[in-house]
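Recall from the previous chapter that SMILES is a line notation for molecules. Here it describes pyridoxal-5'-phosphate.
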Amino acid sequence: MSNLLSPNDEQGLSSGYHSPQVTVDVRLNTNESPYPPPRAFVHALATELAEVAFNRYPDRDARELRAALGRLHGVGPEQVFVANGSNEVLQTLLLTYGGPGRRAAVFEPTYALHSHLSRLTRTGVWVGDRQPDFHLDLGEVKRAAAEADPAITFVCSPNNPTGGAEPRAVVEEVLDLAPGLVVVDEAYGQFAPWSALELVGNDVGLVVVRTYSKTWSMAATRLGYLVGPAAVITELEHRVLPYHLDAVKQAAGRLALRFTTEMEARVAAVKDERSRVHDGLEKLAVETWPSDANFLLFRPTTRKGREVWAALVQRSVLVRDVGDWPRLSGCLRVTVGTPAENDAFLGALSEVLDR
Ligand SMILES: Cc1ncc(COP(=O)(O)O)c(C=O)c1O
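With both inputs in hand, we obtain:
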């Protein structure tokens, strides 16, 4: 019995990965879309749900959803893998290509789930550094190849939590240098100037991971996917649980794609606000960085990041304290919200920094 109560925690995994959820008026800590999906989408989904055969298992291969995503990206359904959030996509990649005796290369600071899921799947984690501006350092990618022969090389573009997207030439170089599969995590891809989807092919060791959580205003749905070589998709399909993607989610994901114009309008609105919040931050006592995503990284220069975080919570504004991530001591990350939320954030921050 005591074994049941004390799972093996050799790798320090028991704390998991969480962003603190605090009740506030302005929640800017988890990079969701500040806008709900279009009403017409919600109505179309409600109508479609009335037709779902709830007594039956869903389409195990999610054929219609994969075909619709394939049409969106100009590939066949056999090049699309779908799962419960892009986190499950990442986990399935590690279950397939990672595991004991294999390594994944990550370049810190970056999205913590890449290393967390690697450890969960008993994949070794090789940690490299980034350039001073937090962009990928190709010398480190080369070093990873020489020292670790990684089965998976993670490229987070735009990178969470630092915000920069890697240029096409850099991703092409990584494809040349990396000995195994290159995973480009584009959770924020629609906010960036280009997409590595352009480079995907059946004979290229590249997969591009995307999510409905951010730009599609569907974080509650938990739906993500990847586009890559058909042979990789076949392997991933062998690792997921039977019927892992429910019928409601499959319908929601398919119907959402009819609302691409509305989604693009939301992305454009967030990008406009991103510039405004960035300009606002530059007028305050903080260091900040350019962003190709829907969030901004900043470091208060006159007060400790942790104190600023707490003072913002007192003013009912929640941002993410990323001060304990590698190289980000004192840093905070703010999601771009609605104009009113952003005003509330900038107002509260300027008040907090004035003290
Ligand atoms: C870089 C990155 N990848 C993946 C995810 C996971 O997204 P999902 O909601 O699709 O699991 C996130 C979420 O914050 C993220 O920042």
